[in-house]
């Protein structure tokens, strides 16, 4: 099994590029390198600048490569499609000019990937983790979202050779079991792969092991998180946005929460997974002074159990 562990700026609280408390992107790259990462995601559009020379210099200084860029935006609204397509162009034109990451034998598609996530709907944000009460899209809105995803994935692939992976995410319109299954019916594997996230699956009432096993043939990329069960129980009883739950500490370092990473390692061997796994631990960026400690603990734990 060839697995490479990578990082993401969300471990430093970087999810909303307009948040005034974000740490400098140069510090995130420096600390990611200090923690032992060789690869990191670009983070949300607008955080790391679309400046090839500056970004390349910082990556080289920290011995890092970019393994994915992210569309983290409203995939439903017709009025947003032009902006989404522009983001694909900006992100893919940057990440394909940067030095490539090492590839593993058996990896389905080479990095860098384009991670596609639906986000930005208040009515779903407050229902994150609650499949029983979350509003679902109308057939027309769902079909619009699927058409938009196809357009983004086709642009990324045909123009840049970048593989798109769709990431079900707590608080978006692709979150729960019924929605992910419908997505997989509507978007063929030829168009886009799947990025499953252990923490989001658990948060949204699914078994991460079961999903990794059952959808191994659609899986191009994986995110690892862990969940503090006590805080999870508290936030499930509150009317709370997803990232406000993260600010309370619902996501914890890998190995300190409820998700069984010993069993997941055994499963990844069974399904013969090769490629990248990215550690994530969303938080309030005002708490980013503990990010280096936490990501270092996550990496140390994963290495200690055989990753």
TrEMBL record:
GO terms for molecular function: isomerase activity. Residues 29-304 form the Xylose isomerase-like TIM barrel domain. InterPro entries: IolE/XylAMocC-like, Xyl_isomerase-like_sf, Xyl_isomerase-like_TIM-brl. Pfam families: AP_endonuc_2. The keyword Isomerase applies. It comes from the Bacteria. This is Sugar phosphate isomerase/epimerase family protein. It comes from Ectobacillus funiculus.
């Amino acid at each position: 099994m060839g697995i490479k562990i990578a990082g993401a700026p969300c471990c430093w609280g970087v999810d909303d590029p307009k948040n005034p408390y974000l740490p400098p992107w140069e510090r995130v790259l420096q600390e990611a390198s200090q923690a032992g990462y060789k690869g990191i995601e670009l983070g949300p559009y607008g955080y790391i600048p679309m400046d090839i020379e500056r970004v390349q210099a910082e990556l080289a200084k920290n011995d890092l490569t970019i393994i994915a860029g992210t569309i983290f935006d409203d995939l439903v609204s017709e009025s947003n499609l032009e902006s989404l397509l522009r983001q694909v162009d900006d992100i893919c034109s940057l990440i394909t000019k940067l030095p490539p990451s090492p590839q593993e034998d058996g990896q389905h598609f080479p990095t860098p990937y384009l991670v596609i996530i639906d986000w930005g709907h208040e009515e779903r944000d407050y229902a994150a983790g609650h499949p029983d009460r979350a509003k679902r899209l109308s057939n027309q809105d769902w079909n619009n979202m699927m058409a938009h995803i196809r357009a983004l994935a086709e642009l990324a692939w045909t123009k840049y050779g970048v593989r798109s992976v769709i990431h079900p995410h707590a608080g978006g319109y692709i979150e729960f079991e019924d929605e992910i299954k419908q997505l997989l019916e509507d978007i063929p594997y030829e168009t886009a792969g799947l990025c499953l996230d252990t923490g989001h699956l658990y948060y949204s009432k699914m078994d991460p092991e079961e999903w990794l096993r059952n959808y191994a043939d659609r899986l191009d990329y994986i995110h690892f998180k862990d969940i503090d069960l006590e805080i999870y129980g508290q936030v499930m009883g509150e009317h709370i946005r997803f990232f406000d739950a993260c600010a309370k500490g619902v996501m914890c370092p890998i190995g300190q929460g409820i998700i069984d990473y010993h069993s997941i390692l055994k499963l990844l061997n069974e399904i013969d997974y090769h490629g990248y796994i990215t550690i994530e631990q969303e938080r309030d960026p005002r708490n980013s002074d503990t990010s280096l400690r936490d990501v270092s603990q996550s990496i140390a734990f994963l290495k200690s159990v055989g990753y």
